[in-house]
UniProtKB/TrEMBL annotation:
A motif ('HIGH' region) lies at residues 19-29. It catalyses: tRNA(Met) + L-methionine + ATP = L-methionyl-tRNA(Met) + AMP + diphosphate. The keyword Ligase applies. It is found in: Cytoplasm. This is Methionine--tRNA ligase. Binds 1 zinc ion per subunit. Keywords: Aminoacyl-tRNA synthetase, ATP-binding, Cytoplasm, Ligase, Metal-binding, Nucleotide-binding, Protein biosynthesis, RNA-binding, tRNA-binding, Zinc. NCBIfam families: metG, metG_C_term, PRK00133.1. ATP binds at K344. The keyword Mitochondrion does not apply. Belongs to the class-I aminoacyl-tRNA synthetase family. MetG type 1 subfamily. The gene is metG.
Amino acid sequence: MTAENQPTQRKILVTSALPYANGDIHIGHLLEYVQTDIWVRFQKSRGHQCFYVCADDTHGTPVMLRAEKEGKTPEAFIQESQAAHEKDFKDALIGFDNYYTTHSQESKELTQSIYLKLKEAGHISSKRINQLYDPEKNMFLPDRFVQGTCPKCKSEDQYGDNCDNCGATYTTTELINPKSAVSGATPITKESEHFFFDLKGFEGFLRDWLSSETLEGTPHVQPEVQNKMNEWLDDLRQWDISRDAPYFGWEIPGEKDKYFYVWLDAPIGYMASFKNLCDKRDDINFDDYWGKDSDAEVYHFIGKDIIYFHTLFWPSVLKGAGYRTPSAVWAHGFVTVNGNKMSKSKGTFIKARTYLEHFRPEFLRYYYAAKLSSRIDDFDLNLEDFVQRVNSDLVGKLVNIASRCAGFITKQFDGKLSDTIIEPELMSEFTEASETLAEHYENRDFGRAVKHIMALADKANAYIANEEPWKLVKNDETKERAHQVCSLGINMFKALTTYLAPVLPELAGKVQDFLKLDTLNWASAQEVLSGHEINKFKPMMQRIDMKQVEAMIEDSKEDLQEEAKLDAPQLDDPIKDEIEFGDFDKIDLRIAKIAKAEHVEGADKLLKLQLDLGQGVTKQVFAGIKSAYNPEDLEGKLTVMVANLAPRKMRFGMSEGMVLAAGPGGKDLWIMNPDEGAQPGMRVK
């Protein structure tokens, strides 16, 4: 759709892929949310009714296991995750109209309703299948929780559904030497009834949908996506939509211990989040956007790794359940850093929170926008280029226009712009760029828009440099021209900021205050200010340098170390805080022979031990091991004692040390027995 043929006001619903609750938001994720947010802000700036919704994707085995590992309920875990995600998005200036969760009543009702509609229409079937089962955890294993050797290329440590090395796909039962990623046990094969969505039955619909456009002339998918999906249309299958208990998710109506697979209810989360927004507002209706006869536009922004679900499975589910299908699904590529995959060991796997602790969100938003296109190319975040582009474009070009002109307006002309618009043809270049730039934004060619805007910024700076208002203002005869030149500079700056407002919303707010404007929407670029009063200019952006980048990378490495501690296997009884060797060296552990052991009258837990350390040295110890040992079974045994523990006076006598034992207590206690050859009095090192 071009900017010229838009309706007066469009009704638009936009989503980004739902972030999974089992993980932090990182800069790779932010590419998608920034891309979506820029497009949404542009539409709102143009006066359209546009809503942006999203939600945490909360269901599935990984969330269940992660919560269990952290000693939390899944519900508590996903609440904490959602709060962290929302804070990251807010601080990154992602302007959701509603951010929700798939673990909601709206999600449950919609998921179960859609399933029942699909079932009634004959699109659901069931059959018994063989799956890998973890005999130690007593659970069926999802594909990603089975690892083994690829049956095609024999690469080791591959997931249970596809090989990262050769790209082959297969079933978990085909994997060689499979192991459970949950317990490490060798899985067994076990039969279970599963429920399937008949994707094959929608082949004709999908061929038409993938190759056609909306009434507005928008292709449903990008050309690259259409080509790829056409390859897959010949191999459509029944798609497994169920999982067995234990599982965190929504139960399938009418079935026992059967749950919806997370990929069924995840995209329904778009609808659930919007339903929640509709319930909170009186001016929007759910069916106007999702009903079969809806005339609204619905767009999904996603990564290229989930194209299959969004362009084959999701439209078919909507079609089969009697809802409208998406206007378009737009995919983007992966993010690399400095030409390579994001790396935790190199510190380039950067969390959103780590980035935000070092840089303004608008710097990354601008860098992404400057290089984004409508294609599905992978995106490289070159950190040196990032620093250079921020300093050159935002500080050296854009903000520099205002900083060069505003001081003269404030000090020399009472804070008021000139009544005369000097060089109207130059100003027209800025105002007339509106529709071309709008078309770039509409088509998600943000890089082309930014390039055009920065070319105009170069013209503005060149004009100011050529006119030299700092010289003109010193002469009474040319002072008014200085006023006119600087006023034109401020107007050019206003137009450029308006065009960049979808990318730089925080800066746009500052400019709005600086210029004393009630609003700064797309139409503002057409308005030229004359005789207008402005506020005193305040610095809006500061230069950055590579030292800040290096600090961010170091913090990212520290994040990795902390995560490694959390991800490492944990004991039920956690290890105490670390000590230095000097602390340990203060403890004198000795081999001791239990010369005598006897009950202690009046004591429920204690035995009195006489410990022989050799060379005539004995120590008396009261040990709480009565529940596990009879005195006569201990005499003559060797054990280990803390020999330099300060004596403690007890009701039954003086205790001069401590015997080392392991176990939770009761009958489950075992004193330490040294190996053969150890002699009483030997130091344990």
